[in-house]
Amino acid sequence: MKYLILVTDGAADEEIEELGGKTPLESANLENINKLASKGVVGMVKTIPDGMAPGSDAANLSVMGYDPKIYHTGRSPLEAVSMGIEMSDTDVAFRCNLVTLKGEGDYDDKVIIDHSSGDITTEEARELIEAVNKEFGTEKVQFYPGVSYRHAMIVRDGSTDYDLTPPHDILDKRIGEYLPKGEGSDFIEKMMRDSYELLSEHPINLNRIKMGKNPGNSIWIWGQGRKPKLTSLYDKYNVRGAAISAVDLIKGIGICAGLDAIDVPGATGTIHTNFEGKASAAIEQFKNGKDFIYLHLEAPDECSHQGDIDGKIKSLELIDEKIVKPIIEYFNSSGEDFRFLVLPDHQTPISIRTHAGKPVPFVFYDSTDEKQVDESKYYGERSAANGIYFDNGYELTDYFFAKKK
User: Fold this and answer.
1) Is residue 77 situated within a structural domain?
2) Which pTM does this prediction carry?
3) Which of 25, 68, 77, 213 could form a disulfide with 208 if both were Cys (CB 3.0 to 4.6 A apart)?
4) pLDDT tens column, 229-246
5) End of a domain among 194, 225, 256?
């Protein structure tokens, strides 16, 4: 038996007036996923426990089979693991975004207009983060370049007792009231403030502005946590597998769970990612003997953060055509029995341009337990609301591997 979990990050949404009261999932042409739904099981699952922030860290831990209330130690240490950063038990990792600030006057009066600096390239971002580390790095504090706008800061023997806000939660808002809070957080705020002066005049950003692109003119620090310890998925489900994603967070969770992290050339985490390459990588891993693939697509989430309805629908259709179709064709041609689970990790409604913690729809297909075709079942919120329900994401994952519900 082969197992595949396909995460369409942030795909779940609310009804949108411009779409005739439909959601993006309901509006998209998802021929291949909907075929799986018509012969499988649909339902809703709550991936974010009550009282926890609806971040991709907690959500993907949940979808991968872990109770976030037990295993969640923060987002950034998971990303640091993926980046190969060595951490001691007393070190604290922070996410360091390159963001675009706009506005006149003091730093406090500016607004974040783009949490991703216009999807800045990894090469450009590396130069900016190297400049940041040269200016602010010390024996205790170090910055590490990652992918696109996503980077890491490690504080040796650090504290996690700070109130830090994700930048995608405050798009188009005055940043003053969202600056770091908590005892000892002054050094973080000072670096953020000073980074604006440093980066605004950096040649990389001056050139981006000249080309009509958003500059990465400030760092934004958040998502602190210590090194996590996860039970391996082999011990949990007796599977050996791989995680395929452009996002360090997902790779980090996978590595901590005992999965191989697969790099795909051209994988960006946006709608301009290498969809075909990700599908080919998944198929190749199955051919090489892997039992399980955790395949993560960030594009719907990024389109939601940008408020791009058409882009969100297009990204879902690209996933259906360029990811799902070839993988299903591979399974069918190989004669392998397989289970296929498709779901978002969390909601990212276009209306608020950030994450929400409501239940999300899923499609589960088992080639050894094909249901009678029911065209009323599809990958969407209203259809899934009529299906089965899981209170926790990890319970759905248990069901996916063991089918005990």
Assistant:
1) no
2) 0.82
3) 213
4) 899 999 999 999 999 999
5) 225
